[in-house]
Amino acid sequence: QVQLVESGGGLVQAGGSLRLSCEGSGRTFSSKAMGWFRQVPGQEREIVAATGWTGERTYYADFVKGRFTISRDVAKNTIYLQMNNLKPDDTAVYYCAAQTLLRTIVGGEVDYWGQGTQVTVSS
Predict the structure, then answer these.
(1) Mean pLDDT, 10 residues at a time, over the chain (123 residues)?
(2) pLDDT of residue 62
(3) Given this model, what pLDDT does residue 10 score?
(4) Helix (H, G, I), strand (E, B) or coil at 62
(5) What are residue 87's phi and psi, to 5 degrees?
């Protein structure tokens, strides 16, 4: 079993930055691929970024490339999403996710979800 707890959401002006954190726990957490998804009411949840269990391999959705960075601190069982140059279209609930393989989580298959954290970007 894996438990995920997100933090770091909030309200920011367009062009600003936020850093989301997701702390994981459970026996198999350190071997999981991890990712960040986001969801706007009425729309499907979409992947934002993902990383393999070592943090060396990463994936980014086209709409965040060059603005967001995913990273992983293995010692702290935590992943981060550094979000720079935020836009109003980035407003969503952001969810942390865990899955066995990076390619699987990129495909949208997720075994574990966090509770979500709201990010609101004002224009």
Answers:
(1) 92 98 85 94 96 91 96 91 98 95 90 96 96
(2) 97
(3) 97
(4) helix
(5) -120, 155
Measured CA to CA, the distance from residue 15 to residue 63 in angstroms comes to 15
Rounded Cα distance, 34 and 57, in Å: 11
Report which residue type is found at 110.
V
- Measured distance CA(119)–CA(95) in Å, rounded: 10
| Contact present, 114 and 4 (Cβ < 8 Å) | yes
What letter represents residue 39's amino acid?
Answer: Q
103 Cβ contact list (under 8 Å, min separation 6): none
Helical H segments across the chain, by residue range: 102-106
Listed residue (65, 104, 115) closest to 85, CA to CA? 65
Contact 58, 70 (CB under 8 A): yes
- Which residue(s) pair with 68 in the sheet? 83
Question: How far from chain centre, in Å, is Cα 91?
Answer: 14
Q: How far is it, in rounded angstroms, from Cα 36 to Cα 56? A: 16
